[in-house]
Fold this sequence. Notes:
- By secondary structure, the protein is an alpha+beta fold.
- Among the domains are: 38-67 and 110-430, no CATH class; 554-591 and 697-705 and 717-726, no CATH class; 595-694, Galactose-binding domain-like (Jelly Rolls), CATH 2.60.120.260.
- It has a 5-stranded mixed beta sheet, with helices on one face. It has a 4-stranded antiparallel beta sheet with strand order 6-19-8-17, with helices on one face. A 4-stranded antiparallel beta sheet has the order 9-16-11-14, with no helix packed on it.
- The protein is elongated, with a radius of gyration of 30 Å.
- It starts with a helix and ends with a strand.
Amino acid sequence: MAGQFATLTSATAMFAGPLAVALAAAGLIVRPPWPVRCWRAPLAAAVGTFAAFAAPTVLSGRATFDGYIKLDDTATYFAMTDRVMEHARSLTGLAPSTYEATLATTVRLGYPTGSLMPVGIGHSLFSYDIAWLFQPYLAFLAAMLALTLYAILERLIFRPALRAGAAFVAAQPAILYGYSLWGGIKELAGAWLLALIAALAPRALLAGRTPRAGIPLAAAVATLVCVLSLPGGAWLIPLVIAGAVFLFLHPTRALLLRAGVFAGVAVLLAIPAIAAAVEWLPRVGAFGKETELGNLIHKLSPLQAFGVWPVDHAPYVGDFRVHPHNAAPVYVLIVLVIVAAIAGLWSAWTQQSWELLAYVATAAIGCAGFVAASSPWVGGKTLAMASPAFVAAALAACGAGLARQHFVPATIVAVAITGGVLLSNVLQYHGVWLAPRGQLHELETIGHRYAGDSPALMTNYEPYGARHFLRRLDAEGASELRRRFDYLTNGATLDKGQSADIDRFRLDGVLTYRTLVLRRGPAESRPPSVYRLVWSGRYYEVWQRPEQPSRGILVHMPLGNASQAAGVAPCSKIRELAATQGAVALATASRPQAIPLGYPPASGERTALVDLPQSGDYTAWMGGDWYGLTSISVDGKPVGSMREELDWPGNYTDLGRIRLSAGRHLVGIGYRTGGWHPGSGGTPYSFGPAALTLENAREPVKIVPLSAARSLCGKRLDWVEALSAI
């Protein structure tokens, strides 16, 4: 809430971090949480849940985040957080760019930002990029959900260790875990807040409480509205009705005063959501369309709300969007969860555990309403947010059974439910799509080093670059949301998700950009002659032109194709260029031949014989994306290897370099799948081909006098340009 109020205006946005720290310190002083009684069990539940949600990233050995490619909304969240934490919702001063266009369709229109505040405050306090804080934040939200479930189950599962185990399992139903692997920040935040509101509501109504007892509940309610926007408050309708009935039946002065304090504080703390709703509410109608699937394949099954959904068949291992291949055992487990949940609710009623009853009622009624009235995309999110309630109720029945000494049936049911949930999540762990840390870290480096050298162009599709890392270069992605139209030489533009070589773009459009951030590859062309190479990494290169070039380009004639950067220069075309009106010289650049190695095997190793035209240092390239461990060797000597590198079709990854002599060589291409690594069960979308290229100097441009133009005829060149004097 501190962040929401601080970011109401551009002038106060910078104080969000200090304000949050000050309020946290004040809270510790006014109401210190120590000494904490029985802290080991809830801590174990929280730490275990944090570990489960953080496992894919942690066990990859890289600081990264989940859900790359599968859902690029995370890139938009990064952009929104960047702006809101510095300038609130104002776009004043932003130059046309993908970043600005993204914000104009989200932040400017009142898109809710409540779930982004903690990670934004973390960034402002520690100056660590949001991208590397995002996954720990999601795991933290899950841990908070587990702690809340531990409190909700207090009156039903008496042994702390068993209650901690139940909270650990109930905090990770398959559909919620699946959304977290997509970067589902609002789903996790919403799931936790629904549980927190249900835990606080009965306590706020207890007799003997002071008027301040309603303030924590009011804060939780306002936070939910800030996270999900005002329409998200529909989740609370069952609790509001129940509270109104309770007040009608028990109209005591103390209770009415407490209710007044609650209502006043809730409205006050919800001011940021109310202010944003002025712009956002007219646009929520689109989320009710039956055809709005988003990234879903089809409408999700309501049965997924019961926490068990193991998908083990390729190419959809761990993908909650499809139905399990062997559905019968899954449906048996789901029925078991439903029956146990009903028994758990009965136990809650008899034990007067109003927290669990309020939680399940809120989740069930709210979820049913949203699924019926909204789009499949929104319906799927509500299933995820509601699902912990049903698993918690089912495990509460097991706890009640153990308390009544029904050890065998209670244990069997608990083990079956736990096994179903954990199996579902292990499969999702093996199918996770991890963001490529190396690629994104290079973009982060470029964004810091060349900030202000704008505008910039990216010709490969990388939303995290254009929307976030390169925002200070006013970057535009050629196939992203943008303000300029980057036309290809055929007059078309790229569709979303596509990439293209710089030579495929019209010269006048390219020269608009001072900086070019280009993906490296075996068939990538050198940019026009006015650009010079200023930085090169494993994945990207940065090219820049001077503000005032020393020469002009009249015509730029590419000679390569999709598989080769260079091609043979026809004499007729050379003569045409030399005869261009105003031309004073020709310019040309060369690129080495890309030597194709074919596609890698689905598993194992494949060999290929290649003839190298000359000796030198060669780079080995692998195209596309993969989940296992891929490698390239030459004559038995390893060149390089890499595990799980997600990428968009048409892009290549530099696997390593090796010095080779001219002549014939045996190349081995290997691919190993399986194992315990995160994502090891995934199926590549576009794996290969592989290639070798001779390393060469990318920078030199050869200037050829018009009188010597014929010397270029028949040569393999990247491109030829007709130059004019400035």
